[in-house]
């Protein structure tokens, strides 16, 4: 596998010589001083891994959507406020890390990433996610901590492969009842939201849940289904009495 690692080398621009690399499978440009990326990065059609995280990039080029073989994309801790909609064309992508940016919204087109297994969007400014994200049918991990999310789309009950969902430190006021129907969800983190009431759910809610984190929620009453989960062996973290 052909790999080029120029990470943490103080780059301020990507040298044209990189363009002459052939058969490139891995390209690491993280931890530099890049403010933009050349459009010709989209010519590396055999690329499997691209890491451009941890630098002052102000935008990602639309040409990244041409990387049809890309499986891992790291675009965390940049100066971007949006992701290009063309990322929805990355049909081979299994991992997307876009954490700790200034994202106020995410493209609806990312719902087309039907190979995506893990999505990390924590530390942004997202208030909602598009309904199309219910079409991420291969998704197993979704990390949304530290966003001002106010609600989850009803389509989340379509994420039947989801195992881990982390929603710590958002601004949810209503418990997302659609999650109770997810057949493989094992870990659900709702810490430090604004939920003050848990709904009544059927005894068979959350059939695979192993850990439910309700710490730092003001919950004067805990309904019976939570105790049912405990009796089934689910680990419940909570700070309110109930």
TrEMBL record:
Which UniProt keywords are present, listed alphabetically?
A: Leucine-rich repeat, Repeat
Work out whether the entry's keyword set contains Repeat: yes
Q: From what superkingdom does this record's organism come? A: Bacteria
| Signal sequence segment | none
Which residues fall in a coiled-coil region? none
A GO cellular component annotated for this chain's UniProt record is:
cytoplasm
Q: In its UniProt entry, what is this protein called?
A: Leucine rich repeat (LRR) protein
Its source organism is Kribbella caucasensis
Q: What is the lineage of its organism?
A: Bacteria, Bacillati, Actinomycetota, Actinomycetes, Propionibacteriales
């Amino acid at each position: 596998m052909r790999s080029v690692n120029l990470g943490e080398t103080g780059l301020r621009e990507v040298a044209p010589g990189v363009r002459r690399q052939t058969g490139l499978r891995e390209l690491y440009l993280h931890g530099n001083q890049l403010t933009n990326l050349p459009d010709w990065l989209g010519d590396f059609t055999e690329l499997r891994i691209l890491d451009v995280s941890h630098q002052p990039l102000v935008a990602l080029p639309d040409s990244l959507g041409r990387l049809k073989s890309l499986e891992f994309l790291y675009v965390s801790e940049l100066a971007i406020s949006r992701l290009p909609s063309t990322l929805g064309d990355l049909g081979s992508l299994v991992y997307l890390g876009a954490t700790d940016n200034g994202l106020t919204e995410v493209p609806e087109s990312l719902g087309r990433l039907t190979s995506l297994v893990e999505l990390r969007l924590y530390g942004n400014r997202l208030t909602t996610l598009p309904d199309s994200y219910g079409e991420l049918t291969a998704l197993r991990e979704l990390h949304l901590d530290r966003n001002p999310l106010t609600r989850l789309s009803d389509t989340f009950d379509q994420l039947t492969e989801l195992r881990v969902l982390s929603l710590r430190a958002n601004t949810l006021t209503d418990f997302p009842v659609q999650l109770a129907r997810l057949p493989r969800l094992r870990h659900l983190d709702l810490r430090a939201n604004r939920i003050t009431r848990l709904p009544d759910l059927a005894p068979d809610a959350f059939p695979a849940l192993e850990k439910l984190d309700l710490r730092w929620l003001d919950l004067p009453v805990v309904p019976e289904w939570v105790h049912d989960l405990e009796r089934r062996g689910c680990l419940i973290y909570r700070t309110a009495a109930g």
